[in-house]
Amino acid sequence: MARSNTRAAASASPLTAARRPGWLQTAVWRDWLTAPAFKESLGVWGLTRVMFVLLTCFGVILFNSKLHVNVLQSFAHSLLPAWDQWDTKWYLNIARRGYQWKTAAVTSPTAFFPLYPLLIRIGVLLSHRSYLVVALVLSNLSFLAALVYLWRLAAWELGKRVAGRTVLYIAIFPTALFFFAGYTESLFLLLTVACFYHLRRHDWLWAGVFGALASATRVTGILLVAPFAYEYARACNFSPRRMLSPGLLGLLLVPAGLVAFMAYLRYSVGDALAFSHSQAAWQKIFTVRLWAGLLDSVRQLWALPSASFYEAHNAINLAAALLFLACTVLAARKLPAAYTLYLVAFWLVTLSSPALAGGYPVPLISMSRYVLVLFPVFLYLGILGERRWFHDAYLVLAPSLLALFTIQFILGRWII
Fold first, then answer.
1. Do 328 and 381 meet the contact criterion of CB atoms below 8 Å apart?
2. CB atoms within 10 A of CB 106
3. How do the domains of the chain map onto residue ranges?
4. Taking a C-beta distance cutoff of 8 angstroms, is the pair 225, 257 a contact?
5. Residue 355 forms beta bridges with which residues?
6. How many CB atoms lie within 10 A of CB 72?
7. Statement: the pTM of the whole predicted model exceeds 0.90
8. Which of 83, 163, 205, 305 gets the highest tally of CB atoms within 10 A of its CB?
9. CA–CA separation, 221 vs 257, rounded Å?
10. pLDDT tens-digit profile of 258-304?
């Protein structure tokens, strides 16, 4: 009954109303901007942006022992550039130079998908602002839109209270700093959640468009094919004849982003699979032993010196993997099958490519960032948040680690 009421409310929402004649009327936009999905998401988004600005100011100033600083003047010259770290540099360089270059370490920009740097390039041409400013603005606006979509999706599936907790939990997760930084996490979250939002409503064309953009943002965007195919086949009662309808176009659109990138790589660097081959420079290998990275992480914890830098990184990434694997199993009992298919596909791809070449000391490198966009897990955490002990523990532990990791990041130190 609760879900029926939620869906009835969703059908009368400003998003649906926008399809009716007169959607340009001011009243429609006023209703949309005052809807709970936008108001709650904006509140969480705004407070966490303030937190990141404060952490940037005090982190850079205090840890660099700056005694006399004009904060307003310094923000553009020394504080804002603190976010130009690690993969952000890759995306900014791709936006400036394209893909036909390599570094001295033989690492290649072809490992990074094109949509985010392309949008940065377009934003710079339109605004005449710096590449870093455009990248940060793009990430943060994408995250706001992602939260609105996620709230609506969670409310549709699980109710408004779970929706509120879901957007809060993902915004303060320990690695949520990448939703602020010049990384693809915000854009990819927006596109995957939007794909599911329209997919669950059988709006096949829009789901396909968002899926295509997701597969042009990260390689895991192609995984949306699995839940899309299931939902579409289920809506057609698994009848091949009924599946030969216009809705099939949406499913066929999902791989378009990846296919377009492969075609570009074939033309520009002569290798359509360069995005995969370049992973070797980051010690990534392919293995069917999905447990290899997990087991080697445990081994590294025992082999590395106690309280060492790499031991801490292994502990963080291993904990993230085990936590989200456990939540995947538990979420399968609470969420529709499409979400489970997406999570299973993610683990099959991610665990089959650990960093094991050359005895690399962190086999699950970046795992704590990769799981950040697994929004079905956060839907489950939103359900779990009904238990007061979990909610309180999350609100204490998650922001504490987020602050620590943010300071580490803006100081230019590797955190995952």
1. no
2. 9
3. 285-385
4. no
5. 284
6. 8
7. yes
8. 163
9. 9
10. 999 999 999 999 999 999 999 999 999 999 999 999 999 999 988 87
